[in-house]
Amino acid sequence: MANPMKSNEPFDLRLPTPGCYLDPEKAGMDSDAVFQGMTAHLFYTLGKLATSASPHDLYMALSYAVKDRLMTRYLASQEVIRKKPQKTVAYLSAEFLIGPQLSNNLLNLGITQEAEDALKRFGIESLSTILEVEEEPGLGNGGLGRLAACYMESLASLQVPAVGYGIRYEFGIFNQLIRDGWQVEVTDKWLKGGWPWELPQPDESCFVGFGGRTESYRDDKGNYRSRWIPSEHAIGVPHDVPVLGYRVNTCDRLRLWRADATESFDFYAFNIGDYYGAVEEKVASETLSKVLYPNDGTDEGRRLRLKQQHFFVSCSLQDMLRSLEKRSIPITEFPKHWTVQLNDTHPAIAVAELMRLLIDQYQIGWEKAWNITTSSVAYTNHTLLPEALEKWDLGLFNDLLPRHLEIIYEINWRFLQQLRLRYPGDDKILQKLSIIDEEGFKSVRMAHLATIGAHHINGVAALHSDLIKRQLMPEFAALWPEKFTNVTNGVTPRRWVALSNPSLSNLLEEEVGPNWITNMELLKKLEEKKDDNNFLEKFEETKLNGKRKLSSFVHSKTGILVDPSSLFDVQVKRIHQYKRQHLNALQIIAQYLRIKNGTNKFEVPRTIIFGGKAAPGYFMAKLMIRFINGIADVVNSDPDMDGLLRVVFLPDYNVKLGEIVYPATDLSEQISTAGKEASGTGNMKFAMNGALTIGTLDGANVELRDLVKKENFFLFGKTESEIMDLKNNNYSPKTFINQCPELKEVLRLIEIGHFSNGDKELFKPLLNSLTGHDPFFVMADFEDYLNKQDVVSECWNNKKAWNKMALLNTARSGYFSSDRSIREYCESIWKVSPMPVEITCDVEELTN
């Protein structure tokens, strides 16, 4: 096959001339046109006069004016697919952590300065004043959702037709407050002020069923078939969010589904006095899109989560099939027009749902339907943690999705028949690979369903993909070696460098030209500057600009004063034991003790910054947040620490805050237990912005270290194989505690309540975990980690050498662009090509 990423000839699409059909104020790109567009939206859309407009009004007016300029590209891209059918990527994800949209769209359109000039005519001197007003859509929990957002932006920038399918959560990931050191969850009402970026499409709604029963019948040809008769329904209403590529005409879309009731009001119930019952169905249906990730620690929470997954998957597949019908394309050609990527196991029900739609709705035979499904679906695995590989109780599954369970039984029976031929008499391998887990409470293994139903399974870093084949799914990998591949994650340089770090972006453009933003490999030219003192000083100044901005933010949010000239040592990510924020916290106590005892070898001022959210039901993670804040209280109030050590926990870490943190970081903490992190993407963002990494050989750290070279990476810790050896040899954390006097003193200080106001019980569960079974080998890695922090301090004292190392991190980080990741998906998994869109105008056609 020819290289599928080789660009096709641009599709020449005739659209009306902006000057004669579209209002110039809705299409013009100069500051006058932007100003006129804002003025019109203030008056006609928002009902406000410029003289009384608030910053939020101006944000809304500018956003609507920018969206006007997206529409030509958005509609052109949709029209190209209609007129010239092209295989389209359907990216199914429960999360899309897309971040603020205004600044990103201004950048991609190339009108940031024009917008700033227009705002000055309203008395707003800085664009940042308006950008601060924007609410961030909390449509994701962390790395999974942010990766999906980066991939959608890269798909559009590479001019690949794509739709991201997900849920329009009314309340996204919670807002995090810190009270008395504890995380407090507050509802994220991101829609409260209106969100100008979406386009509701109620005429393209879909019906989704739940519960009920199935029945058999004979069709017109005498064949036995099954019919699902659901007991409840919901309507999925699509809301489209344009996703513009960087300086191209291609504008893909997110299609996010909002749940509505099929019948909003029961007049009979109301008339007999059952006022709650009159709206009960509406409340139940709309709950489907109310909140991101309901607590699955309860039966109702698990039930709602499974309903959410089926809801958005069913709507999305119906939408894809309907798109073929609209274009008079046979349903059997589905794989030629759609490639369906499952972002983790959340959308894995797609395998059964696509089979159901093909068999029950379109009356296609099993073999042909299975061939369509397995030719269309691919699966990305994002975790090696067994608890994160979704399994659904068989009773719950049958209660909610009885027809799907029938189909899964049939898929499983046919698959096990193949296994019996391959491994005759081997019941153990049948039990291990079966979709139905027969041990304990019977359940449906969603990762197995996705693996059996997909044509490719990929991990998200070289080590992770290797561990999938060696540890997680070795039998599946032996059965279908051709299915398993790797696509290392990436992040978009538009958001994470150009937008968040303008000082660095401008320096890069001066040195290597403007094309680095779409060809990160050009940054390798910076290696020529590694011994240029003048350039290194400029590079350091861009970092200092970021640190000043973060210092100001820290003071405004926490009241803590930090020194921008200190080493900014940062760990921002979801709070989880395997990510080992508590390992970092323990070394802070060791540094604190060294300063108190006068044994500190390197007097290097450090500001250690944490940020991240713990799942509301994850007790140990929430205790880790309290632990970090307890340490911060002691350290920051001790005069002996002045000028040497500060500890900060940034509340409510999100994309918006990440744009401030990444450019300001000197040292990136990537310290997860080897073999636990699938990839990580924070490590990539930090490296692009010139941070050095202290980390284990875990996830994408392995590739990062290979690329930036070992002398520019602070490596510590047990390897994945050494961790396995410890586990297999009855690992005892006390062995490592007894070998390290500093660690014993750190643990003693916690035990006596030094960081909990004398409360010896508060951190006892954390201590018991660390000194008992220590599931993430914190004690085993502590001494090596502490020693490596000494190497960090020694390096920091030679600022020229540090700046050279930082520069080489940026110069060699191009591999981690999400553009590279998407090219790999397109070439090796999706087999899709770009579709450049050329928009031309035909005045004569309009006037005739």
Automatic annotation (TrEMBL):
- UniProt xrefs under CDD domains: GT35_Glycogen_Phosphorylase
Give the reaction(s) catalysed.
[(1->4)-alpha-D-glucosyl](n) + phosphate = [(1->4)-alpha-D-glucosyl](n-1) + alpha-D-glucose 1-phosphate
Q: Which cofactor does it need?
A: pyridoxal 5'-phosphate
- Residues bearing N6-(pyridoxal phosphate)lysine? 685
Documented EC number(s): 2.4.1.1
- What SUPFAM superfamilies does the annotation carry? UDP-Glycosyltransferase/glycogen phosphorylase
Q: Name one GO cellular component term.
A: cytoplasm
Q: Which GO terms describe its biological process?
A: glycogen catabolic process
| Top class in the EC scheme | transferase
The reply on keyword Nucleotide-binding is: no
What PROSITE patterns does the record tag this protein with? PHOSPHORYLASE
Query: What UniProt keywords are attached to this protein's entry?
Result: Carbohydrate metabolism, Glycogen metabolism, Glycosyltransferase, Phosphoprotein, Pyridoxal phosphate, Transferase
- What molecular function terms (GO) are annotated for this protein? glycogen phosphorylase activity; pyridoxal phosphate binding
Q: Which Gene3D superfamilies match?
A: Glycogen Phosphorylase B
Q: What does this protein do?
A: Phosphorylase is an important allosteric enzyme in carbohydrate metabolism. Enzymes from different sources differ in their regulatory mechanisms and in their natural substrates. However, all known phosphorylases share catalytic and structural properties. Allosteric enzyme that catalyzes the rate-limiting step in glycogen catabolism, the phosphorolytic cleavage of glycogen to produce glucose-1-phosphate, and plays a central role in maintaining cellular and organismal glucose homeostasis.
Family from the record: Belongs to the glycogen phosphorylase family.
What protein name is recorded for this chain?
Alpha-1,4 glucan phosphorylase
**Gene name, please?**
glgP
